[in-house]
Recover the amino acids of this structure.
C-alpha cells in the first residue's frame, strides 16, 4: 500500500480520512507509535525497586519496571514461549513476572530466569537468548518514554524545544517533586488525533466548558479569560510538539512580581500552611495549585496540561482511551494534595464537569466526519497572525491552531518519510 | 455500625422485615433510582440529609475518600453544582445524556443505629446512547438517617465493578 499520504495534510487543512481510514491507522501504528518516543510512565509511579506498572505503546502492551539496581526497564508484556501476557496487574511491586501458562519466569529487567522442567529444552533453548523484548527507554524530568526503535534519536533531541516547558511544568511542585496521585480513565468513540488536537485548542474552552466555568468561583473563571488575553499565546516547538499558554502569569511559577492576589477559594489552605511555613513558601505553593499556566502537547501521546497529564491510547481508528493523571507534591502538605485531587475531580473523568463535554464534542467530530470524508478538516485559525518568536518558533494566539499544524506536519513527516 | 467498611467486608444480615426502617430505606432507595433514571435531579436533591456525602470511588477498597482520587466526591455544595450543570442547559453531554434504566436489589442491612441504618445493594444500570447499549454494575452502600421529615440519604457510595478501568458514562448519575 502506498497511498498519496502527503496530499492528505496541507498547511491549513487535513483530509477527513485521517480520522476514518483503517489503513491509515495501521500505518500510524507502524510508522509513528512503534517507532517514536511514546510516554509510558512518570518516575513516581515506579519509585522503588520492584515497582512496576503496565502501559500501552500503540496497541502493544508493555511493562514499566524499576529493577534492583534502580534502572528503569520497559518490556513487551509477552512471554517468549507461547506469547501469553506475563503481567495483568496494572501496578504493584514484585520480584519479577511469571507467565501463568507454563511458569516461565522473568526478572524485573526482563531476563529469563527460570523454565520449569528444563530437560525438554536441553540443547534447544538458552535462557539468555529469550528475555522479554526490551524497548529503548529514556527519562526527562521524571517523564519516562520508550521506543521500539533502538536506533532512535536521543530523547532530549526529540523533546527539543519542549524541554524548557517540561521544566517549567514541574515547577508546580513548588519545591517538592511532582508525583502521580491517581488517574481517571475513559474512552470515546473517535480517532486519537481528535484528542491530540484538543489539548492545544483553547478556542473550544469557553464554549464546551461553559458549565464548568459557571460552576467555579469568579476568580478561577477570570484566570482563564483566554479569548481576550493577548499574552495567551501558542508556540510550535518542533517535532510535533507545541505549547499554548492559558495563564501567562503562571507560565513560569518561579516568576512572581507580587501583584497577584491569592484566590479566596484557597484561604483555608493559606491559613493552615501559615501555621508552620514562611509566607513566601505558602504563596509559592498556593500560586501553583492550578498547575502551570499552559498546556504542553507532546507528539504523539501525552500532554502536560496545567495540573495533570493527559495520555491517549489509540484503540482503533474510531476509538481512543484517555487517562487523566492527577498530580501532587511528593512529601508536600496533605491539605494541598487533597485540594489538588478535588480540583482534578471537579473537571476530569467520566463524571467530571469538563471531560464528558469534551468527549461529547470529540464523538460528534467523528460522526460528522464519517458522514463527509471528502471535506477537509480546517486547521487554519490564526494563519494570518502567526509569526516566529525570538526562538524562531511559529507563534500565534492560544486560541489559534498553530499547535495542530505543528502536529500534522510531524504526522506527515513520519507517515511519508523515505517515500 | 460499620458505615465506613466496603460492602464486601461488612457484616451482612438478611433484610430484617420486622424493622420498618429497613423497608422505608429500601423504598427510599427505589424512589431515588426512579428519580435518577427520570433525570429529576432537583427532586433527587430533596432526598438528601444536610451534610450528605455522595461518592463514586475509583479504589473499591478504600474508605479514605478524601485522600484518594474519586470519580465523584460531593458534599452538599458540589452535589448542587452538579445538579445545576446537568439541568442548566450549558452542558453538551448533559443535553445528549444517555437514557438509563436501573434495577436495585440484593438488599442487605449492614448496620443499625437508633437513628440510622446502613444498607448495601446491587445496582445494574443499562444505558443507551447513539446506537449503543451498555451496562454499568455497582455495589451501592446507603446510609439512611431519620429526621422529623422521615428518612434521608446521608451517604451514598457507588462502587462500580470496573471503577479502576475505563468507565463509560455520559450525562447521567449513578
Amino acid at each position: 500500500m502506498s497511498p498519496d499520504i502527503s496530499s492528505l495534510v496541507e498547511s491549513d487543512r487535513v483530509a477527513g480520512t485521517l480520522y476514518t481510514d483503517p489503513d491509515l491507522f495501521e500505518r500510524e501504528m507502524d510508522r509513528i507509535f512503534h517507532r517514536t518516543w511514546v510516554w509510558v510512565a512518570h518516575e513516581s509511579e515506579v519509585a522503588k525497586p520492584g515497582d512496576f506498572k503496565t502501559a500501552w505503546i500503540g496497541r502493544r502492551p508493555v511493562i514499566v519496571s524499576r529493577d534492583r539496581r534502580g534502572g528503569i526497564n520497559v518490556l513487551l508484556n509477552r512471554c517468549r514461549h507461547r506469547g501469553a501476557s506475563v503481567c495483568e496487574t496494572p501496578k504493584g511491586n514484585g520480584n519479577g513476572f511469571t507467565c501463568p501458562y507454563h511458569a516461565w519466569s522473568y526478572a524485573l529487567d526482563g531476563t529469563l530466569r527460570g523454565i520449569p522442567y528444563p530437560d525438554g529444552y536441553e540443547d534447544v533453548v538458552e535462557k539468555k537468548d529469550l528475555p522479554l523484548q526490551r524497548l529503548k527507554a529514556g527519562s526527562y524530568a521524571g517523564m519516562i518514554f520508550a521506543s521500539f526503535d533502538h536506533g532512535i534519536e536521543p530523547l532530549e533531541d526529540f523533546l527539543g524545544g519542549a524541554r524548557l516547558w517540561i521544566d517549567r511544568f514541574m515547577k508546580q511542585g513548588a519545591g517538592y517533586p511532582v508525583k502521580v496521585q491517581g488517574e481517571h480513565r475513559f474512552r470515546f468513540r473517535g480517532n486519537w488525533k481528535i484528542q491530540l488536537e484538543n489539548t492545544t485548542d483553547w478556542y473550544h474552552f469557553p464554549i464546551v466548558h461553559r458549565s464548568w466555568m459557571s460552576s467555579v468561583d469568579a476568580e478561577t473563571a477570570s484566570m482563564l479569560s483566554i479569548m481576550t488575553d493577548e499574552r495567551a499565546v501558542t508556540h510550535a516547538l518542533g517535532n510535533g510538539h507545541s505549547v499554548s499558554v492559558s495563564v501567562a502569569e503562571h507560565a513560569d511559577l518561579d516568576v512572581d512580581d507580587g501583584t497577584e492576589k491569592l484566590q479566596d477559594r484557597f484561604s483555608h489552605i493559606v491559613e493552615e500552611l501559615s501555621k508552620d511555613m514562611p509566607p513566601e513558601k505558602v504563596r509559592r505553593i498556593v500560586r501553583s495549585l492550578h498547575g502551570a499556566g499552559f498546556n504542553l502537547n507532546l507528539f504523539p501521546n501525552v500532554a502536560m496540561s496545567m495540573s495533570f497529564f493527559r495520555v491517549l491510547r489509540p484503540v482503533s481508528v474510531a476509538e481512543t482511551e484517555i487517562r487523566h493523571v492527577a498530580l501532587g507534591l511528593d512529601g508536600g502538605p496533605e491539605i494541598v494534595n487533597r485540594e489538588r485531587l478535588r480540583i482534578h475531580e471537579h473537571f476530569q473523568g467520566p463524571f467530571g464537569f469538563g471531560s464528558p463535554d469534551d468527549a461529547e464534542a470529540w464523538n460528534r467530530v467523528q460522526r460528522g466526519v464519517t458522514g463527509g470524508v471528502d471535506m477537509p478538516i480546517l486547521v487554519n485559525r490564526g494563519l494570518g497572525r502567526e509569526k516566529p518568536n525570538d526562538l524562531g518558533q511559529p507563534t500565534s494566539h492560544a486560541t489559534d491552531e498553530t499547535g495542530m499544524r505543528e502536529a500534522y506536519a510531524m504526522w506527515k513527516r513520519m507517515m511519508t518519510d523515505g517515500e | 455500625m460499620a458505615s465506613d467498611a466496603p460492602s464486601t467486608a461488612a457484616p451482612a444480615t438478611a433484610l430484617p422485615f420486622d424493622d420498618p426502617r429497613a423497608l422505608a430505606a429500601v423504598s427510599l432507595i427505589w424512589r431515588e433510582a426512579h428519580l435518577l433514571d427520570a433525570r429529576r435531579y432537583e427532586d433527587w436533591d430533596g432526598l438528601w440529609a444536610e451534610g450528605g456525602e455522595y461518592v463514586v470511588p475509583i479504589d473499591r477498597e478504600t474508605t479514605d475518600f478524601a485522600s484518594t482520587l474519586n470519580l465523584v466526591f460531593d458534599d452538599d455544595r458540589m452535589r448542587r453544582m452538579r445538579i445545576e450543570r446537568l439541568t442548566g442547559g450549558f452542558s453538551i453531554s448533559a443535553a445528549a445524556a444517555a437514557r438509563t434504566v436501573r434495577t436495585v436489589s440484593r438488599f442487605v442491612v449492614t448496620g443499625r443505629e437508633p437513628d440510622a441504618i446502613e444498607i448495601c445493594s446491587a445496582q445494574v444500570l443499562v444505558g443507551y446512547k447513539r446506537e449503543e447499549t451498555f451496562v454499568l454494575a455497582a455495589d451501592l452502600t446507603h446510609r439512611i438517617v431519620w429526621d422529623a421529615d422521615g428518612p434521608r440519604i446521608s451517604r451514598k457510595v457507588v462502587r462500580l465493578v470496573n471503577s479502576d478501568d475505563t468507565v463509560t458514562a455520559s450525562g447521567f448519575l449513578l
